Backbone:
């Protein structure tokens, strides 16, 4: 019988434990240190999470209260492009979840810890001291970035988060609101709304952000608490995420800013690919290429928003829009790693109803909604035509 070691008790480690217990008969050692508090960066998801929770843990909608959860029908975007607000929706009757990441981790642990295939080992450990066939490392943010690609494009590197308590969720969608110094996310949970201002600390100060975020509190009738958190981050993903015995997930593998709530979906894709690799269904080169490609596509999806720009003419948005244009151009002219489907092909598919295989975490409908909502079709066409002429 095969043996797997999972390192880390954050969201990625918890999802991995549930995934491999459900889909294998392997022995699993789960290593974590309870003194290390998991970091909850994002608390939204796409459609992958409800399917996963039902399939692996028999989770039902009425269990949402156990993870402080609420339904997520869409992402509401405002202030992007020419400023017209729009909803990036899931096709009815589909819904996703907002959730408290720490509560989700506790919930998963409570359900799997009695599984006879699982041994929990509350200790820190390094790879060389682990006796197992395979290792899935979800130990958190790296101390060094030498083995990672750092995003050349994403213009935000800091976030200021404020918890706004309420008696019940007042809306069932994620907020993604462009502001003068970046953009603001809003995650409605059972007892609070988590408001986070994404910005670049090399362009704007925390004091500027704290003053501007007050407009969001007023707009959505939220009362901020004194429970805040501010930190800086890098946007990155591994150069090689898989080897014959070891793979990485969560912040140990990647972090791209929380636009479009792509993290949970990427974690589950990594778990699936890891299982394929460990079962000799796929090979390392193919999976590492897929990993690279999907991360590049997610980065391009994020940067499409900055390419659209916003209603604000500020230093941040001049910088962000320039980065967005550079990313879109590079996405159209990839040489070393050609993206599976260029933006040109996707735009034609959207128009002609041809088969559409998706891009990053976006399906055809998501791509179409955002091209229209962000009002970037004409600018993308111009960029594409100029690129073709330039060739």
Residues:
């Amino acid at each position: 019988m095969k043996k797997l070691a999972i390192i880390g008790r954050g969201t990625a480690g918890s999802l991995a434990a549930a995934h491999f217990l459900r889909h294998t008969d392997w022995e699993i050692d789960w290593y974590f240190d309870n003194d290390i508090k998991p970091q909850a960066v994002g608390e939204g998801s796409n459609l992958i999470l409800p399917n996963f929770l039902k399939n692996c843990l028999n989770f039902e909608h009425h269990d949402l209260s156990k993870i402080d959860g609420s339904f997520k029908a869409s992402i509401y975007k405002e202030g992007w492009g020419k400023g017209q607000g729009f909803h990036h929706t899931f096709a009815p009757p589909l819904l996703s979840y907002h959730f408290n990441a720490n509560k989700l981790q506790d919930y998963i642990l409570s359900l799997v810890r009695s599984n006879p295939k699982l041994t929990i080992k509350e200790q820190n450990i390094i790879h060389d001291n682990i006796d197992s066939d395979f290792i899935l490392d979800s130990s958190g943010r790296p101390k060094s970035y030498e083995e990672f690609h750092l995003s050349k494009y994403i213009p935000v590197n800091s976030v200021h988060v404020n918890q706004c308590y309420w008696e019940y969720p007042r809306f069932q969608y994620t907020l993604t609101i462009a502001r003068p110094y970046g953009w603001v996310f809003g995650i409605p949970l059972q007892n609070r709304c988590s408001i986070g201002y994404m910005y670049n600390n090399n362009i704007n100060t925390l004091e500027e952000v704290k003053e501007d975020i007050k407009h969001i509190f007023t707009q959505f009738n939220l009362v901020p608490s004194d429970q805040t958190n501010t930190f800086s981050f890098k946007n990155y993903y591994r150069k090689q995420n898989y080897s014959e015995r070891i793979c990485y997930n969560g912040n140990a593998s990647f972090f791209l800013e929380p636009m479009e709530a792509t993290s949970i979906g990427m974690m589950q894709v990594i778990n699936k690919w890891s299982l394929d690799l460990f079962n000799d269904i796929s090979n390392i080169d193919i999976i590492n290429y897929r990993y690279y490609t999907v991360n590049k596509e997610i980065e391009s999806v994020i940067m499409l928003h900055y390419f659209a720009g916003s209603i604000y003419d500020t230093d941040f948005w001049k910088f962000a829009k320039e980065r967005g244009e550079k990313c879109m151009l590079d996405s159209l002219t990839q040489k070393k790693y050609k993206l599976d489907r260029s933006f040109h092909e996707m735009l034609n598919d959207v128009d002609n109803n041809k088969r559409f295989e998706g891009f990053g975490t976006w399906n055809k409908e998501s791509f179409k909604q955002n091209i229209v909502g962000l009002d970037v079709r004409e600018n993308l066409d111009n960029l594409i035509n100029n690129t073709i002429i330039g060739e």
